Amino acid sequence: MLVKAAYGKSSVRIVRVTRHGDRHDLRDLTVAIRFEGDYGESYTDGKNTGVLPTDTMKNTVYALAARDGVTEPEAFGVALVRHFLDRNPLLRHVRVDLLDHFWGRIQVGGREHGQAFARVGPDSRTARVTGTRDRTEVDAGVTDLLIMKTGHSAFTGYPRDEFTTLPETRDRILATSLAATWRYTGVPSDFGTHWRAVRSTLLEAFAEHDSRSVQHTLHDMGEAVLRCVDVVESIHLVMPNRHHLPVDLSAFGLENRNEIFVATTEPYGLIEATIAR
Amino acid sequence: MLVKAAYGKSSVRIVRVTRHGDRHDLRDLTVAIRFEGDYGESYTDGKNTGVLPTDTMKNTVYALAARDGVTEPEAFGVALVRHFLDRNPLLRHVRVDLLDHFWGRIQVGGREHGQAFARVGPDSRTARVTGTRDRTEVDAGVTDLLIMKTGHSAFTGYPRDEFTTLPETRDRILATSLAATWRYTGVPSDFGTHWRAVRSTLLEAFAEHDSRSVQHTLHDMGEAVLRCVDVVESIHLVMPNRHHLPVDLSAFGLENRNEIFVATTEPYGLIEATIAR
Amino acid sequence: MLVKAAYGKSSVRIVRVTRHGDRHDLRDLTVAIRFEGDYGESYTDGKNTGVLPTDTMKNTVYALAARDGVTEPEAFGVALVRHFLDRNPLLRHVRVDLLDHFWGRIQVGGREHGQAFARVGPDSRTARVTGTRDRTEVDAGVTDLLIMKTGHSAFTGYPRDEFTTLPETRDRILATSLAATWRYTGVPSDFGTHWRAVRSTLLEAFAEHDSRSVQHTLHDMGEAVLRCVDVVESIHLVMPNRHHLPVDLSAFGLENRNEIFVATTEPYGLIEATIAR
Amino acid sequence: MLVKAAYGKSSVRIVRVTRHGDRHDLRDLTVAIRFEGDYGESYTDGKNTGVLPTDTMKNTVYALAARDGVTEPEAFGVALVRHFLDRNPLLRHVRVDLLDHFWGRIQVGGREHGQAFARVGPDSRTARVTGTRDRTEVDAGVTDLLIMKTGHSAFTGYPRDEFTTLPETRDRILATSLAATWRYTGVPSDFGTHWRAVRSTLLEAFAEHDSRSVQHTLHDMGEAVLRCVDVVESIHLVMPNRHHLPVDLSAFGLENRNEIFVATTEPYGLIEATIAR
């Protein structure tokens, strides 16, 4: 018995150049589309009537970008969602995920060049638009935002059992690769402004927090966003704990005054939570 | 308001060697542990009482493996789940994910060497054990299983709109990187036997199917598992469509008799479904 | 002043299906082509006369595969090298690298299916053909061959200084991801047979060796190939030392009888050498 | 016969925090060390006398960083090279590669925070120091510098054969992931200043160039560095051509006015050259 099913197209890469004389604008997106609906017979009987090919989904991304332009990723996602719902009677639920690769302008002689760009990263902007016959939901996000605190981070007071070896610390490095997604109330305008406000709120809260754990800081960052950006309804944060371990230098006759660390990739702690109004 | 939260340790790498004289056995696992429970105060107030450190989770993996041995990944996951539930009063829901990296024995002079191994892949065996105070659920799976059909695969009869360019085909390559996970009824014994039965059933069904689409073949593979392996309650399959496109050779004065393909990585179709009894 | 230059096309993905009735053969290659020659003016003046576009290099891979078939990767490389040297007067030195992704046949009811395949790995076969107006050299290789010894591996007798903390060991795990390339004397026939002979010789030597270090085992493996496969003129081996560290269980009141290891990915030792007749 | 051999330690991850009251400085490096010398007996006989363990190489990185601090990556590399040559009589040639992961300060209320950082990328700074008993050579570099031009890039005038399908273009996108390494004359002081000068020269030359091919632009960028930064003796540039292909919209009744592109990852052109005074 078919319980749940979805199909779609992923990793559709589109770069759109808009030419204003000598000054070009650039949008560089990776788009994924996912359909759910009354497609049971395509699974059980191989009946493809009504099954929009994923190749056509891809073509639609290019065609709509050409015909209508691409402004903010969230708005482009909304346009795709509406297009697919309008045209596909079997479609019940469509999701469009967008990854926005940001390019800054190269400086030449102190001025921005109009047609030459360098990628800015490593973080990327994300958007997810979900649509049904009844409603549209818009999430925005940031991913791969690598951040580190070298002060105001402790971890103490946890339970100990026979397998505990971790020493308590009042001064450790806290480093993470933040992925956050937040839901807007309705479909606001001016997505770029909101996105920048959330990103800088997350960074400021991380920097300013007196951290007792990753959980503690994650919660504070989420609360700060809800407090500072009123169009945000809820936020989900994922923070892997990229452990930076102090190196034991005592065998070398040296003291580690909390200065020398080995950055590790595995194992890693993984902390996540959703915070809502 | 904290709506939902989880924390844990990922990418715990453990290799266990069991020595039977000259013949060694090898188990090579990557383990991830995830806790949900009454941990709200650690987020809101930085209160760590009752918060088992993720470092201790890691230590527990090594300690239990040393004390009790490691047989099948599912059984090791069940042992970890029970240990954590027993010791952590705030814990409500624990999930242990295991990735089993399989090593075969190197052949020397036609005989298996007792202490030398080569990795067999690229697919890996997976297991997920989920536990609450009331019950334990065991999922097994396979991931990165790369499979390809060069015959008996068609895609026709789909709707066309103004953005459709895909030609219908009655003879295409069908290639995917299968990820499947299935749930057992209760906690069966003899996990290895069941795992091998499901894996070979998936491969045989894929090979034998007269495919009208990825959806159609995916469904047939899932149904075959439910038909052939009675301890499986449901199965979830994810099949990216790794498109192999025939190369247009006409400009070179050559004909492509369905022989020359370019293997592409993006964009890709993505098909998934859950099939249950 | 332009000192040295090269240009070419990388990551050309080609799958060739050969149909013998119900039984299909499959070849799955990634090809890279690299030209060196009298191309200085294309750099200094942007003069493209004589500069074969890398797009045409790609097309040539598909066209030759269609026109002449693909048997062994080395032989296909030789054909490409000759084609490019014949057609491009400015070309002095051409190199073709090939990565051969091996697919085995899926078993159905104990018999090999003619049209369904599963990838076998994680290792891949490699080939490099280098040609000038005067001569052609053929290297073959294997990459990503993950191997592990759980016995007969020691590391002792090394110098100690004030920064040494490593304990000597007479019984450690030795694990590596082997990459080896070997040069044939001239252009032999029967590349597949030689390749299988070298690969199994490498595995057997690794398994049988009484290792005093990675260097020691690497050298023995290379010597074994020169001893057993007479068409091999020299061999280069690269063996990262994928350290498996015994876990200290003493804090848990447990003893580690050389059974429990953490598999690490970084840092890693890196050992390489070329061995010739 | 052992022809050539090297051994060392790779992926040594070190983060050094220097505390000036409330304001911390951060250096985040990945270090690799490679020894060549009179180590033949370790290969042929497993004799480890004189073979410094790679584990000690790693420890030395941490110990020297603790004892002497870390300023510029090139200077730290020089210190490591000298240390290893001083202590290891069998060592003839040592190479230290450093990857410098740059962290910028998080802004809070328009001011730089003293103890909170965000990674800046995706490009990284690289350094390579090579030493023998007679001399020390210092290379610096940049890698993963993603750059794109949407104007002033053409590709015409190339030869056509029976496998040519590429249309000539006077207005294409030129995008690459630049890796450049340059050699300094001797061991200059003030590595950071030189590095910034080279990086901005590369960016400006790329932006301003009227490109007839990747080769043409690569050469111009190299010449600009030699012209503008007098301590640079030679420079090697590697520029993969990350093709951005205009999407054919004619089937949709739309015209592509050079606005809509698909960004591809494979196949890719690969252009490289060394330019010296």
Description:
Four copies of one chain form a homotetramer. In chain A, strand 1 and strand 2 form a beta hairpin. Chain A has five helices and twelve strands. By secondary structure, chain A is an alpha+beta fold. In chain A, helix 4 (191-208) runs antiparallel to helix 5. In chain A, the strands form three sheets. Chain A has an eight-stranded antiparallel β-sheet. Chain A folds into two domains: 7-134, Urate Oxidase; 143-276, Roll (Urate Oxidase), CATH 3.10.270. Helix content of chain A is 25%, strand content 43%. Chains in contact: A-B, A-C, A-D, B-C, B-D, C-D. Chains A and B meet through strand 1, helix 1, helix 2, helix 5 and strand 9 of A and strand 1, helix 1, helix 2, helix 5 and strand 9 of B.
What topology does this entry show?
The structure is a homotetramer of 277-residue chains.
Chain A (H helix, E strand, L loop, with lengths): L1 E19 L2 E15 L2 H5 L9 H15 L4 H15 L3 E10 L2 E6 L2 E9 L4 E9 L3 E14 L24 E11 L6 H18 L5 H15 L3 E10 L2 E3 L13 E4 L4 E9 L1
Antiparallel strand pairs in A: 1-2, 2-3, 3-6, 4-5, 6-7, 7-8, 8-9, 9-12, 10-11
Helix pairs in contact in A: 4-5
Q: What brief labels describe this structure?
A:
homotetramer; 277 residues; alpha+beta; Urate Oxidase; two-stranded antiparallel sheet; 12 strands; 25% helix; 43% strand
Total number of strands of chain A: 12
Q: Report the principal-axis shape of chain A.
A: globular
User: Considering the protein shown, what is the CATH homologous superfamily of the largest domain in chain A?
Assistant: Urate Oxidase
**What is the SS-derived class of chain A?**
alpha+beta
Query: Using CB atoms under 8 Å apart, which protein chain pair has the greatest interface?
Result: A-B, 71 and 71 residues
- How would you sum up the major sheet of chain A? 8 strands, antiparallel
* Pattern of helices and strands of chain A: EEHHHEEEEEEHHEEEE
| Residues in helix, % of chain A | 10-25%
Our count of helices of chain A gives 5
Q: Radius of gyration of chain A from the CA trace?
A: 23 Å
What is the name of the CATH class of the largest domain in chain A? Alpha Beta
Quaternary structure: homotetramer
Average pLDDT of chain A: 97
| Low-pLDDT stretches of chain A | none
Give the distance, in angstroms, between the N- and C-terminal Cα atoms of chain A: 39 Å
CATH topology of the largest domain in chain A: Urate Oxidase
CATH architecture descriptor name of the largest domain in chain A: Roll
Q: How large a portion of the residues of chain A is in β-strands, by DSSP E?
A: 35-45%
Numbering strands along the chain, what is their spatial order in the largest sheet of chain A?
Answer: 1-2-3-6-7-8-9-12
What's the domain count of chain A? 2
